Amino acid sequence: MIEVFEPVIGEEEIEAVVAALRRGEISGSFGESIPEFEKEFAEYCGCKYGVAVSSGSTALHVAVAAAEIGAGDEVLVSASTNIATALAVIHNSAIPVPVDSEATTWNLNLDLIPDLITKQTKAIIPVHLYGHPVDMDRLMEIAERYNLLVIEDCAESHGATCRGRMTGSFGEMACFSFYANKVITTGEGGMVTTNDERLAARLRLLRNLAFTKPRFRHEEAGFNFRMTGYQAAMGLAQFRKIDHILSEKRRIAVTYNHYLSDINGLQLPYEANWARNVYWMYGVVVHPDFGISRDDLMQQLHEAGIDTRTFFCPMNQQPCLRSRPGFRDVPCPVADGLWQEGLYLPSTYTLSEDVIKQIAGTVRLAHRN
Question: Which H or E run includes 66?
């Protein structure tokens, strides 16, 4: 089976983890790997501060908490995203409001935002879906006009840029994931980047049970969202390969484009002229004129030994969100369509051209038949 994604772990990562273990960097409170990883990754993103946490989900959770968003507040979120984006809102007792997608980038449609804002709207969480950045210059103008705080969800966009500026450097905070299938990985893990010293201090406080002095007296209800030292050591080893990884990600996209671009009914991933798409996953949309459905194509690929995944179920359809008090039933027809018609193909950055040609040939055969 050609897997949809396989983590690429080398001797450098193994040696770094073993060395961290030998130094006693077991918990998230000791050693030099965590502060070094935080510093290097934040600087790469163009930020002053990085706060390492246990996952991309907890990065989002603690960022919303640090912004003091809570009961009765509304947060606009990309409709097409992993459920973690919205869970960060509801676990802070606030209400996620889905914003439908654009048909080209598959990111949230900025034209829809003004009509969704109410007196309760406090923030917006744009997701740079599958590695293509949101037009953050325009989004920040909207946020400033309506006095909205911005938390970027960069789980899939390490190294992506908007007009030459890194995703993760626009909002008040930005959240990254280092899950096994992300651009770089620590196995599990995440980070919040920010240029706000006060927010950085608050993030560090909340991720560590909100310990103050005296030690076991707590003014706030914090979280245990710490990253371990040996995860950070692995992250540093991965991070030092990021330029190579991104170059290979883009090579894969160019190769897929070459072999798939002339197939009717198959929408390929987009790259705006102001953007650098890092193609976290190579996604396609199977329109009706392709000839068979998305699900039938996935079945034929599976029978040929090729693994795939569907796009995300949109937030407007999620039962765990729709049942929440105050949830708004916002129509999201584009995101609904992406859920029904979108899939991503194998995207491990070590895929050879021959393997990509084989995958594309199977897609082409399904289309022809």
Answer: helix 56-66
| Residue 64's pLDDT band (cuts 50, 70, 90) | very high
Q: How many CB atoms lie within 10 A of CB 70?
A: 12
359 phi/psi in degrees, rounded to 5: -65, -50
What whole-number distance in Å separates Cα of residue 112 and Cα of residue 124? Answer: 12
Express each pLDDT in 250-294 by its tens digit: 999 999 999 999 999 999 999 999 999 999 999 999 999 999 999
Quote the CA–CA distance of 44 and 46 in Å, as a whole number.
5
Nearest to 69 by CA among 60, 79, 78: 60
**pTM for this entry:** 0.97
Name the pairing type of β-strands 173-177 and 149-153: parallel
Task: Give the pair of three-digit tokens for residue 50.
Answer: 């990085």
Write down all domains in the chain, each with its CATH number in brackets.
11-100+108-239 (3.40.640.10), 242-368 (3.90.1150.10)
